[in-house]
Specification:
The chain has about 475 residues and is mainly alpha-helical. Helix content is about 75%, strand content about 0%. The chain is built from 21 helices and no strands. α2 packs antiparallel against α3. The longest helix is centred in the C-terminal third of the chain and has 32 residues. It is elongated. The N and C termini lie far apart (about 90 Å).
């Protein structure tokens, strides 16, 4: 409830102070939810999540300080009055950096796959419609300012395109069921930002709403499967689920094909329109090719999941009890499946007041279908048969680890960065805190007073010889001063 209250605070007020309160609330509560299981993995994932989002909090604080030059924090009244190009650059740079941290854009993509350490209902909340979409919502708010600066707009499109390509490629080499769905979330967020930068604000918001339904449904179905398999998340253990969990498998496959954009499901009305809009927009050819390649990769890893869950034989324990007798978990996904089918059309009627027709030449129109078919074939063939990659790659394991770990982004921007910072801190600690500052500061004074107090301690031992010598020195000192 606190999590939902925080996202409501972000939405209802066009005020950066209120947005910061909700933003901080999301970061803190997500940390508490991610560390729900008391183990090292959950703790590390929670720390990575909260520290990554803290960068966005700092950017929002700087934006609040800067926008105060206009006399108020209600930014919605001042977007049209940012006349100076330097002021416009500062504001939009801070807002984009804040949005990039919250929606896990490259190079801040490490925390989103790590956040699957939370329980699966929490993942359905965090990864589908609240935490990761807060950054997208912030950019939608500042969209009128964003499209006025061409350099930032093109850079953001390129980063979003790289994000969807790398996450789609990494999902094809991942075996963790929840991490595959989390990488799919990463891809869909990049898709929304590309459409937003092209100039279609309503279409980006439309896909944001439709994506929340079938992504939450995917996570809940994955949670039922993980629960039945005694908390195993490796897709290599599952198989032939249509015989054991038929209703769950049917619902998860409907949500998958809705995500892939099958006609007349929820994802079709937004995703197909996004692909067609990108074909008529003025975007870079490299971005265009990466955009369509990532669409094929989406179909590829969805078919891979279908192969591992339905076609492949069961590799779990011989003695198992897989069933769907828990109606409490089923009633949630049964309610969501109707929305995953009809919500796209309903939102299309509600959001778009006019009927738009995108007219393309047949080659480009069929290119979308060709990409989907190629992704479907590759997703089945590549993972059904084992190719001998040793003749092509010297180190097959390194290539798989490189692609599967989002091109070493978690290692570079989390583990490696922390290692460098901690090593520098250790050197500073040894040279300053335990070195010169100790000798010249507390430890030096301590040793000096110990030596002096030990000398006076000898005088206080009531030794008769010392007292006589002291008396003799006093008499001699008085006599010499006469």
């Amino acid at each position: 409830m606190l999590f939902i209250f925080s996202i409501i605070i972000i939405i209802i007020r066009p005020n950066l102070i209120s947005i910061l309160l909700g933003w901080d609330g999301l970061g803190l509560i997500s940390y508490c939810l991610v560390i729900y299981y008391q183990n090292v993995k959950s703790y590390n994932a929670g720390i990575l999540t909260v520290l990554s989002n803290r960068i966005g909090d700092v950017c929002l604080l700087l934006g609040i300080a800067w926008i105060l030059n206009y006399g108020s924090w209600n930014f919605i009244y001042y977007i049209d009055y940012f006349i100076d190009i330097n002021e416009r650059l500062v504001i939009i740079f801070l807002i984009i950096l804040a949005g990039m941290t919250k929606r896990a854009q490259i190079p801040f993509s490490a925390w989103l796959p790590a956040a699957i350490a939370a329980p699966t209902p929490v993942s359905a909340l965090v990864h589908s419609s609240t935490l990761v979409t807060a950054g997208v919502y912030l950019l939608i708010r500042f969209r009128d300012l964003l499209i006025k600066i061409n350099f930032i707009k093109v850079s953001l499109i390129l980063l979003s395109c790289l994000t969807i390509f790398i996450s789609g490629l990494g999902a094809n080499f991942e075996f963790d069921l929840k991490k595959i769905i989390a990488l799919s979330t990463l891809r869909q967020l990049g898709l929304i930002i590309i459409v937003l930068c092209i100039g279609y604000k309503k279409l980006a918001f439309f896909h944001l709403l439709t994506h929340a339904i079938f992504k939450a449904l995917l996570f809940l179905c994955a949670g039922i499967i993980i629960h039945c398999f005694s908390n195993f998340q490796d897709i290599r253990y599952i198989g032939r689920l249509i015989y054991y969990l038929p209703l769950t498998v049917i619902i998860i496959n409907i949500s998958r094909i809705s995500l892939c954009g099958l006609p007349f499901l929820a994802g079709f009305y937004s995703k197909d329109l996004i692909l067609e809009i990108s074909s008529i927009s003025e975007i870079n050819f490299l971005i265009y090719i990466l955009y369509y390649l990532s669409s094929g990769l989406t179909v590829s890893y969805r078919i891979r999941l279908v192969y591992y869950s339905i076609i492949k034989n069961l590799s779990f324990n011989s003695l198992n009890n897989l069933n769907e007798e828990n109606f409490i978990m089923l009633k949630g996904i049964i309610g969501l499946i109707f929305l995953a089918i009809i919500r796209g059309r309903l939102l299309n009627w509600l959001i778009f007041t006019k009927y738009y027709i995108v007219i393309l030449i047949p080659k480009i129109k069929l290119f979308i279908i060709v990409v989907i078919i190629i992704g479907l074939i590759l997703g089945y063939e590549v993972f059904k048969f084992k190719f001998n990659l040793d003749r092509y790659f010297y180190n097959k394991r390194l290539i798989r680890y490189f692609i599967g770990n989002i091109w070493f982004i978690p290692y570079i921007f989390s583990f490696r960065l922390n290692k460098i910072i901690l090593r520098k801190r250790l050197n500073i600690y040894k040279t300053l805190d335990q070195g010169w500052s100790e000798n010249l500061g507390a430890q030096g004074l301590f040793s000096y007073f110990i030596k002096k107090s030990s000398f006076f301690q000898i005088l206080q031992n009531n030794d008769f010889k010392i007292l006589l010598l002291l008396l003799l020195f006093i008499i001699l000192f008085i006599y010499l001063n006469k």
